[in-house]
User: Which sequence fits this backbone?
């Protein structure tokens, strides 16, 4: 199983969301292996044929097994956990809005997650992130808006 690669993020220090710069970016990339998908299937119990049965998938419009959408969200989480890793107060994910899976991610695809801070909510002490996931062909495969909350 391969290890993901992380670029950017982490360099921000501060105690309030107002100190977090809009436009801060991080990037995470990972080649999706068969073992990634099978381990995820085993952990979650999601053994749907679309993920684990190549012969079944040959008869679908996909033509091959595809990675779980929730696994791709996990890669989004990898980027979000790094972007503010040096911040002086802990941040916690409080959700993803408008998650869309636009294209299938196949075994062997390399996904690149681009995460960018798009806004802050001073009253709620939340940070909004825009997340885009592309495959090795530059095709957009997933998008989401991520919400992080300051915690004490």
Assistant:
């Amino acid at each position: 199983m391969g290890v993901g690669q992380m670029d950017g993020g982490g360099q921000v220090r501060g105690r309030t969301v107002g100190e977090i710069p809009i436009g801060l970016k991080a990037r995470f990339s990972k080649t999706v292996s068969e073992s990634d998908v099978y381990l995820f299937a085993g952990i979650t119990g999601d053994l749907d044929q679309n993920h684990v049965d190549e012969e079944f998938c040959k008869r679908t419009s996909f033509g091959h097994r595809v990675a779980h959408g929730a696994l791709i969200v996990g890669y989004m989480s990898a980027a979000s956990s790094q972007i503010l890793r040096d911040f002086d107060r802990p941040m916690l994910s409080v959700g993803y809005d408008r998650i869309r899976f636009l294209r299938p991610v196949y075994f062997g695809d390399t996904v690149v997650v681009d995460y960018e801070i798009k806004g802050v909510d001073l009253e709620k002490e939340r940070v909004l992130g825009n997340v885009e996931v592309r495959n090795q062909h530059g095709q957009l495969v997933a998008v989401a808006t991520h919400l992080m909350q300051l915690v004490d």
About this structure: Residues 115 and 131 are 5 Å apart (CA to CA). The chain has a mean pLDDT of 92. The radius of gyration is 17 Å.
